[in-house]
Design a protein that fits this description.
Blueprint (H helix, E strand, L loop, with lengths): L5 H16 L9 H5 L8 E4 L3 E2 L1 H12 L3 E4 L6 E2 L8 H4 L6 H4 L1 E2 L18 E7 L2 E7 L2 E2 L11 E3 L4 E3 L3 E2 L2 E2 L1
Parallel strand pairs: 1-3, 2-4
Antiparallel strand pairs: 5-8, 6-7, 6-9, 9-10, 11-12
Length: 174
Amino acid sequence: WHTDDPAVFVETRLLYAALRHLSLQPDFLGEEEVAAGRLDRYRVAYLTGNCRDRRAATALDRWVRGGGVLALSAGAATRDECFEPVAFPFTAAVYPPGAAAALEKQSGHRYNERIDLPGIKPLTEAGLTLDGRTVTHPAIGYRLRLAAEPPAAWGTFADGGVAAAPVSHGAGTV
């Protein structure tokens, strides 16, 4: 669903570039394909964008519960296909109640890496800790604090709010 927000489009494009730099060839699946069960042949999925079709969300939930790993960008799947706020089962344990309203958003930018992205003032900084090493990165475009402290937070915002964490959902992870 196109929300006319350049931050979502640029995040999807740069995620693709990052995966390619890791020598991975990502596939793009449309919501119709996800709803039809075509996600079943994958182990990991990345989800960007606020809006999600309810049929696709049902299939995503079934896939994660069956053992899939779903990585969400900030605010991904916080609204349905009619732009109504929603808490899908796979996001309910990750996001706080009222996540669509709690989503912090920057506006007025094109988020173009050659034009304005380098000069955008971040919403905050996020620190990510893996294997005992912490890397700090600016949070630009969107920010959504995760629900209560997950047991194994990977990253936090400068204010201490949880920025990244694996949360079990059935046999899978969000």
